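so i finally got all the pieces together for this one. its two components total, 468 residues if u count the protein bits. some of the lines might not be protein, just check the labels. i wanna see the whole assembly predicted at once instead of chain by chain like last time, that was a mess tbh
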Amino acid sequence: MLITSVDNPRIKELCKLKTSKGRKKEGKFLVEGAHLVNEARKCGCLLEAYSLTEKEGYITITDNVMRKLSQTDTVVPEIGLCRIVKKEELADRILILDGVQDPGNMGALMRSAKAFGFDTIVLGEGSCDIYNDKAIRSSQGAIFKLSFIQADLLEYIPALKGYTIYGTNVVNGIILAEAIASDKLALILGNEGNGVRKEVQALADKNLYIPMHNTESLNVSVAGSIIMYSLRAK
Amino acid sequence: MLITSVDNPRIKELCKLKTSKGRKKEGKFLVEGAHLVNEARKCGCLLEAYSLTEKEGYITITDNVMRKLSQTDTVVPEIGLCRIVKKEELADRILILDGVQDPGNMGALMRSAKAFGFDTIVLGEGSCDIYNDKAIRSSQGAIFKLSFIQADLLEYIPALKGYTIYGTNVVNGIILAEAIASDKLALILGNEGNGVRKEVQALADKNLYIPMHNTESLNVSVAGSIIMYSLRAK
């Protein structure tokens, strides 16, 4: 099959997936680039694939159509249509995000979470859509290998039994080097500007902080990754 | 003073600082937002400050002029004109960047470098301009507190005496936990897509790697920050 027009009904349908609302409604999302298309195929969530060149198993589309579908400035050679798979398994290490808003941070956190065995991410209200194109790109495919749970943190955290809950706060915190990588643990990270909400902070067993020189704070994906590395599953 | 026109010659001069070429030629750069303007003032490199509202020591500009100067979508209340200060001190911990290209990564690395005592950053060819607006924003002011050295890494690294040089590579590497935080050390990080060039890698005393589960790599600012945290100055 060859699609040459941006007005093709199929393409119009795909374009709806550029918004968070469209993705939620359809239960689908797009990924760009050969690496992510392959990762989606391996994880069994690839529904269709589109390529600029004729390839078996791909629908061929022309340059103008690819530009219409793509959300990056550079032209990608392929785009994949994926279905959102609900996978709500609870790993022994959980990352809880209380309003992380930047898609680049969200993606980097997914990538680090996978690397350090935090295989479940709990998304509180106000967190960035994980299927945002930039978040997916920054995740480098980790998005296909993690479980995600949407939750009201004020209800979810108290119900999480058997886990040591670590918050992040300099005030009343212990330094990271003193934290114990217990069998089951959850780490709470907060919003880029405001950190973890006080009422969520209060639900933690302990607060951690990273010792720093002459610096108030770190980027949230950096701070989170340092803590996940330090408390990683061995 | 009040400036209302985007055609004002002073504003036109400032607009030249939006490009790397213009900044190099003039030896100046712009920062956006009250936090960065204050940091620039504290560090003694603020030349002029522009505000939407009348404030002592500020040149008042109108909304249209601010939009013209600003490189973000949201309107910032103030912008500062800063001079580029050459400060080439060698700290005991040095971060060497071999072609880190993304401004967000560059800024996050500056922020982490400051936090962990890597107070000198050596910029090899192909590295992103540190005065890029996004890099400055992500640095959260760390840019004012670090020394920067532009260098040809193939000449610079062999001439760096008394430092343990750590490269980053999984192949022939030792795990990070086994690295020793010696008195003087340098860490080399590479380009987002290609890593550290082979010929630069060859100049390291040892290569480090971060153990990961089912993941090929981490975001460079995340990986660099984890290593800087682990080898930080105490």
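The radius of gyration of chain A is 20 Å.
Chain A has a mean pLDDT of 94.
anyway lmk what u think
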